[in-house]
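Hey, I'm writing a tutorial for new members on how sequence and structure tokens pair up, and I'd like a real worked example in the thread rather than a made-up one. If someone can provide the structure for the chain below, I'll link this post from the tutorial.
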Amino acid sequence: MAELRDLLRLTRLIKSEELRSKVRELIKNPAPSKLELPREYTPLKIAPGSKRRHHSYPKGLVEHTVACTALALALCDVVEKVYRCDVDKDVVVSAAILHDIMKHLTYRVDAQGLYAMSELGEKLDHLSLLISELYLRGFPLSVIHAVAAHHGDAGPVLPRTIEALIVHLADFVDSMLNGKILDAAKAILRECLQLEAPLIDGSTAFKVVRAKQLGGCDAVKKLVKELKLEASGG
């Protein structure tokens, strides 16, 4: 499972010392400068990537960020090597690392152990929080735009640069990949074991789908026994 140190390690790819320093500081202190923290929120190191859809498990946010950055770098290679167009990788890496960095403040864990919106998250979305914070911390407009546009058609602004488009597509692909594999794994566990709402992360989901693919329900039952999977309270 990805950890915060993996995000800090990725910042080494940012050539600009000034930009690298800004990104590292935001990872270490991912809080708004002008707003109070909510009373309850999920710490960045264990926050989910979403409440119910993709990466909806502890540490899912960091895992998604690492995967999104890796995908973005792969797309940079395609653009440069296949389409022979230069890409500002400093902008891509910075925006990919930071695109969801404020999301942990918008979530909390409720009395049933499920993810819910925090007081702050009920009033401001993570993207609005981050865009304002990037501006306050003096990030370049190219990075702010790539972050602001990472939701594509569903965001406040469409990607207007190659770097923003790359970050948007990387975010979309990893969100879909994780969401689809979680749905598939949960459907398999229902089919093979009548196990509802299992407590699984992305890695486990891929193992469940692979087991079914190679060995059918017998292989899934063996895997579940090895992993000691249980149904959640939700």
